[in-house]
Amino acid sequence: MTITKLPVIDLELALSDDAPADLLDAARAAAEQVGIIQVVNHGVPAELIDEFHERVGRILDLPREDKKALASPTGHPYRGWRQWPDDFGRLELERFSIGQFATPDEAVAAGLPEEYAKLYEHANVWPEDDPSLADVARRYHDASVGVAEKVLALYARVLDVPVSAFPTAGRPYYTSFVVNNYPTWTYTDNGSTADEDKLLLLEHADGSALTVLHQRGDYEGLQGQAPDGSWIPVPIVPGALQVFSGTLLTKWTNGLLRPGRHRVVAGGTVTRRSTAVFWHPSLDTVIEPLAPFVRSEGTDFEPTLLWDDVKDNVEDYLQVFGRPEQVAAWREGRPYVAELAEAEA
Ligand SMILES: O=C(O)CCC(=O)C(=O)O
Ligand SMILES: [Fe+2]
Known about the structure:
The chain is α+β, with helices and mostly antiparallel strands. Helices cover 28% and strands 21% of the residues.
């Protein structure tokens, strides 16, 4: 089965005793060839998805001046509101990022070993006029994690390995959580209308095991890469969530499951919005190809401790993408708000 269009998988049916063979075949083919599926009947109530997006959307729709108060007070790139401009100062993407735990104490209480809890020293940022947004975000996050667990069970099923082969049980998962807001963006630098000339988010694969993504908007902005390198749209299917395989899952399966490469192209007449929950096993997990996937030929993947990949993520990020002013803000522990060419963006 060669994938030319992503399957929409009824997750409850696919995990049931009556799962039709063609549904399981479609899930397996998409996981092996593309690394992206869409799922319905995933267990996240539509009302919860809407409530979270309406409330987080309200703050993202505020005037820029008001949103400045939602930037991380200490310049942390993965907390609160942040905009990033392209090289011409035009807004490409804005994000609202939420740390998994509010404080180191909360992380330890949830079972995180003390040595990892410092990841949560930088506070989350919530709007003063909607303090309970934190609770809604928590419920949406936890429901998304439930989807990741189900998709892992589905992949274990189609690969004919017990789900217990994946070391996720018993300890707190590591996640990150971001809301992406893409401006309507009509200009191109050379008059070209090619997708390559209007990318708002460049091609990449996530570093997660699985990423659960909700998207809303009025055009097909998200694309996934087919095995031949071409790009296939990931359409907005009402009620569906998207699930990307990340590079961690590829390593676990010794390369059998492809990491879902994806990108976002500009278009549409309203702001495109997406929310991603990046799901990983616990930080003390050594990530290496799992026994059922390593045959006599062995593996080229080196084992790594997840913590070693995560512990310097702010410094690593700033080294590659940080603007000088942003790096200075982080060093001095103050908020950073990017300069934009257009005042009202
Ligand atoms: O906005 C999207 O649909 C994709 C977002 C994404 O790839 C990411 O946040 O890693
Ligand atoms: Fe991504």
